[in-house]
Each structure stands twice: as C-alpha cells, then as structure tokens.
User: Which sequence fits this backbone?
C-alpha cells in the first residue's frame, strides 16, 4: 500500500461499538462530521482546537530537527529515533486524554512526551544526559519518564511496555478509577508475543487499555508485508474481541477524533480498544540507519501527506489560519527550543558518586534485623 | 524477630498469630502468609496461573478464592510475560501484587518483564518509579520431573541489580517473608523449593514477619562453615549431623537472601572456622556458589586454612530416571566428603 491508497483500507473492524457510537468509519470526513456535536462534556472529550494541534506538531517537528543537528554536533549520543512525519499520531492521541490517564510509550517517544506536556527543557536536558533531565540523565532519548504526568516511558524493548500498560489499567479497574491507559507501540510489536498476551489479558478482563499501534510500515528495516502474514493489523486485534479501527495516521484531526471515540468507549466499561494509526516516518529508523531498505520515491510520495502542511492547508481553506499565525508560532517555537538547549548546556551532571543511586529504594524502608 | 516497619505498624494486626506454636506445613505457612497479607492490606492481590479455582499448582492458595473473591485471587491465562508485566503495571498503579509463576522454568518467559521493567524502571526513570511487586515461584529438582521442570535458576535472578531475591527454607520463613517483601518498595522474588511444601514443623512465635536482609546460622559449629539455601538446607543439616559423629562440628548458614548477599554473616563464620563448603543445587559454572566463593576469596583469603569446596548440581540437563537425578544433585554423602576434604585438605 502506498500513500496514494492508504486511506482506502481505513474502516472499523471487530466488535460493533455500542449504539451510542454507531458510526463505523473513521475516515477523515466521516469522523469530523460525526464528532463535533456529540462530545462536549469534558475538555478531553471536546474536539481540540485544530490550530493548537498544528502548533504542537510544528513544535515536535522543529524540536526533533534540532535534535538531529545536536546529534551531529555530538551533544546528543546513544540511539536517537525521530518521529518526523509521525507527529499527527502523538498530538492526536494526547489531545483526547485527560491528566488522569496513563501513557506507556516506545523508544520513539519525543513527540509523545512533548504532546503529553512533559516540559521541553526536561526532555532536552535528558538528551544531553543532564541531571535536570526528566530521568536525571539515566534514561536518555529512549527512556523519557514523567510520573507526575503519568507518562511511564520510554520502553526500548519492542512490545515490552504493553504488559505494564495492562497492569496500570488493572490497578485503575480494581480501584474503580475512570482512567484509561494509552499504550503506544509500532507495527513491529504486533509480531511479538507480548502484544498477543497483553491484548488477550486486557480483553479477557475488560481493562481500560487503549492499544495504539503506530503502523509506520517498517519494523526497523523490515517492511510490513515481510513481517506479518496478515497485514491488516486492526483485523488481527479485533480477533481478541475488542473494537479496532484503522485510522489515517497522517491526519491529526482523524487521530484525535478516533482516540476520543475509543476513550469514550473504554470509559463506558466496554474493555480495551485498538487503533491502527497508519503513518510513516520520513527519517531513518535511528541515526545509525543508512535507510537502504526502502525507495527514496516512496518516502517522497509519503511526504505529500505530511501532516503539518496538510492541516495548515485545511485550516487556511477554512479561514482558520493565517500566514502570520504560522510565522509567529515558528518564532515562538524557535525561542523555546533555543532556551531549552541553553538550559541543557548549562545544567549540571549527576555526580558520579551517585552512580548506584536509584538501583533500589532507600533501604531504611526495608525490614532488617533488630 | 524484626522491627516492624512503619506500614506494618499502621496496618491491622496480623491474623496469623493464632497458628503460632501449632504444627503446620511449609505450604500452610505460605497460605497463612497470603491470607494475612490479603486481610491486612486491601492493595494486595494474588495473580497467576491456576491460583484460584484450581487452588494453586502446589495448593498454596487453596481456599483463598472462596475467601477473597476472584478480583483478588486472579486466575491468569498462560502468559507469563503478560501477567508478570501486568503485576509491574499494577504496582506502579498503587497496588501490591503478588504474582505467582508456576515454576522457575516458566519464569524464563517473563524474564524480559522482570529484568527490563521490574528491576530497571526505578533507575531508568531517575528514581520516579519504584515497583513494589512480589513474584513467587517454585524452583528446584528432586521429584523426577526431568530437564525442563527441575531448574534452580534463582542465581540468574540474583545477578540482577534492583531485585531482592529470597529463598525461604523453613516454615518460619515461609510464613514470615511475604509481608516484609510486600513492604519493600522494590521488586522481590521469592523462590520456593518444590521439595519443601510438605515440610512439617512447629511455627515459632513471631513468625508472621521475619527479616529479609540477613542470612541465618541454622547450626552453630567451629570446624567448617557450610553455606547453602532453600531445598539443600535439609541435606546440609543431615550431613552436619553425620559429621558431628566424626567429631567435626559444622556451622550451617542458610543464606535466606540471595540478593543482596549478607556478606557479614558469611565472613564472620568463615573467619571463625577458616574452612568453607558451599552447597548449591544449581549448576556450578557462573553460579551463585561461584559468587560466594569469590567474595570469600576477596575478603577473607588470609583467614582460610583450606581451599573453598563446592558441592553443586552436575552440569547436565536434569535426567528423569531416579538414580540419574540423584547422582546429578548434591547429596548428604557428597557434602560430608567435601567437609572432610576442607577440614583435612592434605589427607
């Protein structure tokens, strides 16, 4: 499937949603037509301001472009996985979650963290390995954490975060808390046993998990059709008895609406839902990746669906955006990034004397001998 | 006896006191520990394969489903990685899960969750995410269960920073380790040797909570230190009695805590006896027994009067036939022979 036909397969699969949510398609126009009048209760259930969605995507894009430069300057080391091209999934997903909801993410999570509200300064400082980083420099690019925002990382084992997400949802379920745990993973994770164990467990126990598959069509260098016998990922998820949608992941409004609908369904007690967000990364898998496994023409074709100009164009045609807005936001974002870099440069390092801190909790809390 | 933790003091009194002084089994002591924890703390729940309706593969949780209901005695599908990871997530979400993995062999399917999440999240998050999870599992050989159901892999887990690894070898520890393990803010693994469930004895007073930091001297002696844990403790005590008849007084240390190792208790004994035998059912190469021997060599080399002896499992996938399995495992006669060598290395 290519950029040109990627929306053709969009649709709803699996268990029928409740009559309250009878709408079947999440294809862009259908979604926007059905949503705006129905979701008004909580702020996260209201359709987000699309201009803000655009600004957030611009912010993530520019942040990551800067990270790539900083990597070349050796300010950032280790693995660095950019989500450039995939910003619509991060921004759309987070727009539909409340502060009580939990997020479990992958190693390609800068966008998720920023969209969730993790301060840019702490994310940038983490990239620099500084003590002011959101994981005190012990995590790096792949392990961004922010417990106060219920952002549970940053997991570098493909599918390794899924069982944890099920457990977070189990705790909410057992305490009758109305939270949803959004678990983000890629198409590669769906070949892992942990996906299937987690999907089964969440569906069996009707737990409030939103499985969010960012299908960017490559498990590192292995194309979708070379890794999956059944490439319709939503259909596979639906086999676990949960509602599963395939969504145009290059359309932030479609992602936001589909997430809002799924989260509503989950909060209604119907158990987990699954979103296949069909997206594409414009950059290589990581900074080490020579990107030999796909045609340049394919990348260029997908860039025609770049979520940022796509939304900007729609907003301008609706008269909801001016060039001046874009120029102003770009300047604000540049200033924010510049300040984050300066703060990261100036920040201190964790003392080497504290190397083994946080391996275990302070041991005075453990029952020892009298 | 241990100093109660703040949490324990604040919680309701232990329900297990009624069993103190009574004849019981290791299995019943474990069950009473669960009943006590489930009663004292509403955040505690048990999750694993066949822990509910079946009553637990080793009948540890028999009757708890009827008492506490299916939300808290939670039968899980056969997905070790899934439900162990779910235990980690539930712990992050404020619960105090006890995950039962049927046997250590199956825990290999959960190793990613135990190592990459449970043991790692606290550090990787810069201290934000402690994981107060307890994982229990059966370990060990001796019941003719052949190569895939007879491992002693607790030493692998003892390799991992961030975990506390416990091996209750007595009825008292079976009863008393669970509650303090649940009070630990970090993940605790409890290894129950399958040969111990029918162990019968009297539960001493104060067993509802024991320390989970120290090794214990199970038999005092002056001539040789014998270091062991779990299912081998009984064999070592038997060997010590045989040695006593020969005039060799063995001091027997039950490690109890495989990580972090209680160097102090080990070294104090070695400095007193100057001779060491380490008995471990696990394979010798790269093992916990090797780690203990290395620590003694590092810290008490000049106190030794003889080479360190080890009695370990033979380096073979555990065979089914009884005579072969017996030959693959440390036996009292092997332990006695090793102690004799340690006491009289030149004979």
Assistant:
């Amino acid at each position: 499937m290519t950029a040109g036909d990627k929306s053709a397969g969009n649709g709803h699969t699996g268990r029928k949603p409740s009559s309250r949510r009878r709408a079947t398609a999440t294809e862009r126009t259908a979604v926007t037509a059905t949503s705006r009048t129905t979701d008004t209760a909580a702020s996260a259930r209201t359709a987000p301001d699309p201009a803000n969605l655009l600004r957030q995507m611009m912010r993530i894009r520019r942040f990551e472009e800067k990270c790539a430069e900083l990597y070349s300057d050796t300010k950032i080391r280790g693995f660095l996985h950019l989500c450039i091209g995939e910003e619509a999934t991060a921004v759309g997903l987070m727009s539909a979650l409340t502060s009580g909801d939990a997020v479990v993410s992958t190693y390609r999570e800068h966008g998720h963290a920023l969209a969730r509200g993790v301060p840019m300064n702490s994310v940038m400082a983490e990239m620099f390995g500084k003590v002011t980083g959101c994981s005190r420099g012990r995590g790096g690019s792949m392990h961004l954490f922010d417990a106060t925002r219920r952002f549970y990382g940053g997991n570098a084992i493909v599918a390794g975060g899924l069982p944890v997400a099920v457990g977070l949802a189990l705790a909410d379920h057992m305490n009758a808390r109305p939270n949803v745990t959004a678990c983000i993973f890629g198409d590669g994770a769906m070949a892992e046993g942990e996906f299937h164990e987690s999907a089964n467990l969440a569906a069996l126990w009707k737990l409030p998990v939103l499985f969010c598959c960012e299908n960017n069509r490559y498990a590192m260098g292995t194309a979708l059709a070379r890794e999956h016998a059944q490439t319709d990922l939503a259909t596979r998820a639906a086999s676990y008895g949960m509602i599963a949608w395939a969504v145009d992941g290059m359309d932030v409004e479609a992602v936001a609406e589909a997430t809002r609908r799924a989260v509503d369904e989950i909060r209604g007690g119907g158990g987990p839902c699954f979103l296949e967000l069909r997206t594409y990364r414009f950059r290589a898998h990581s900074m080490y990746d020579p990107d030999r496994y796909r045609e340049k023409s394919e990348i260029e074709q997908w860039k025609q669906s770049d979520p940022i100009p796509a939304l900007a164009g729609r907003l301008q045609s609706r008269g909801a955006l001016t060039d001046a807005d874009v120029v102003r936001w770009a300047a604000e974002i540049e200033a924010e990034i510049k300040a984050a870099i300066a703060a990261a440069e100036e920040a201190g390092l964790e003392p080497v004397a504290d190397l083994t801190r946080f391996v275990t909790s302070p041991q005075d809390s453990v029952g020892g001998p009298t | 006896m241990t100093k109660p933790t703040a949490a324990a003091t604040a919680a309701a009194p232990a329900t297990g006191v009624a069993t103190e002084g009574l004849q019981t089994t290791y299995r019943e002591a474990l069950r009473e520990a669960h009943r006590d924890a489930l009663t004292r703390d509403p955040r505690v729940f048990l999750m694993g394969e066949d822990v509910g309706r079946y009553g637990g593969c080793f009948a540890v949780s028999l009757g708890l489903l009827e008492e506490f209901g299916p939300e808290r005695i939670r039968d899980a599908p056969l997905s070790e990685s899934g439900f162990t990871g779910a235990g980690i997530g539930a712990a992050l979400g404020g619960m105090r899960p006890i995950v039962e993995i049927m046997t250590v062999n199956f825990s290999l399917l959960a190793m990613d969750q135990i190592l990459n999440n449970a043991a790692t999240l606290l550090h990787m998050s810069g201290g934000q995410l402690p994981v107060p999870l307890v994982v229990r599992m059966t370990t060990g050989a001796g019941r003719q269960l052949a190569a895939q159901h007879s491992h002693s892999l607790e030493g692998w887990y003892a390799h991992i920073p961030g975990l506390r690894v416990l091996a209750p070898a007595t009825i008292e520890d079976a009863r008393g380790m669970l509650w303090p393990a649940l009070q630990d803010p970090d993940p605790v693994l409890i290894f129950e040797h399958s040969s111990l469930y029918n162990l019968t004895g009297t539960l001493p007073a104060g067993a509802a909570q024991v320390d989970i930091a120290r090794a214990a001297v199970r038999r005092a002696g002056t001539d040789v230190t014998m270091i062991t844990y779990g299912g081998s403790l009984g064999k070592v005590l038997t060997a010590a009695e045989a040695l006593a008849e020969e005039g060799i007084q063995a001091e027997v240390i039950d490690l109890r805590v495989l990580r972090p190792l209680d160097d102090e208790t080990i070294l104090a004994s070695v400095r007193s006896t100057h001779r060491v035998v380490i008995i471990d059912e696990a394979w010798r190469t790269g093992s916990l027994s090797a780690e203990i021997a290395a620590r003694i060599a590092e810290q008490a080399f000049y106190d030794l009067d003889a080479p360190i002896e080890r009695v370990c499992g033979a380096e073979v996938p555990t065979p089914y036939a009884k005579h072969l399995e017996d030959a693959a495992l440390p036996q009292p006669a092997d332990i006695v022979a090793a102690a004799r060598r340690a006491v009289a290395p030149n004979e």
